[in-house]
Prior knowledge:
About 35% of the residues lie in helices and about 15% in strands. The protein has 11 helices and 8 strands. It has helices spanning about 35-40, 45-55, 60-65, 90-105, 135-155, 175-190, 240-250, 250-260, 280, 285-305, 325-330; strands spanning about 5-10, 70-75, 105-115, 160-165, 200, 220-230, 265-270, 310.
Amino acid sequence: MKEIARGVNLGNWLVLERWMNEDLFKGLKANDETAFCLELGDKAAARLKAHRDSWITLEDFKWLKNAGINTLRIPIPHWIFGDYEPNIGCVEYLDNAVDWANQLGLKVLIDMHCAPGSQNGEHHSGLCGVMEWHQREEHIARTIDVMRKLSQRYKDEPCLWGMQLLNEPAPSLPHEILRNYYEQCYREIRKYVDENIAVVFHDQFNMHQWKDFMQTPEFKNVVMDVHVYQCFGDKAQLLSMHEQLNRQFEGWPQAFKELSAYFKIIVGEWSLGMYSKDASFANASAVQTDGFFRAFAGAQLIDYEDVDGYFFWSYKCDNPYWDYRQSVEKHYFPAVLGE
């Protein structure tokens, strides 16, 4: 049997997301990390340090190991080395994560979550309402340079599973610019990390546009990242409990099978998040609600065990349906994944 990366994301640790931990943003208008640093000014460093010291610790890594998780996707920002004001660097925490993973026999996927100028204009890119990454060559060059430095820093670490080139570039971002960036960044990374380390690219929310990409012998161990969320969009929010479960099986298994002829595939983000307005959710008993989320979790695991890896979003979150640890404690997932 093939080895599957069964993982979680360490969201809201090195890249802040307000909705995941409102207390951290208490008293602030900021909705992204850049605004957080600007609004707090000289006080930002202390608040960030307290958060990063406590949000993820060695004890969390131990819990994840004991829960059957074998790989961690770690979102990082382009300012990780502390060279981009007003943002505050955090590479020492990534160093800790690598050390803990090596100590416990876990693997790590380092994910470029925030690119300069923002690749999607979303809060999780570190900069809301702006999407200028592709408009300036220096933005792209900086992103490649940060990936190069990370590759040099961690190339010999036993825990390194892969390097992800960019998280969730917007569908409207020019496709050719993105393809060129992926190829340039791949070549730079491969100067330092060998073919055992995966190079991961996000599909820009369109799996089928990549069939001719990186198919020549030069490109080895290339992995496509697909994000699967059923909670977004007006149509999705009108579906009943039964329809949501049926939807999980309608298209993904066939798509995964088709695209696996071209790439290894991971589901880099997924959750139990559900924002349905349908009466079947509103009127459900506690037993029905519990049954739905167990079934929804199981349906997704059935699909994702057929690809090369999957990473729940996220390990910790204010919202319990986006919190893996709480979901395990509620018995939506097995106490030990994979057993």
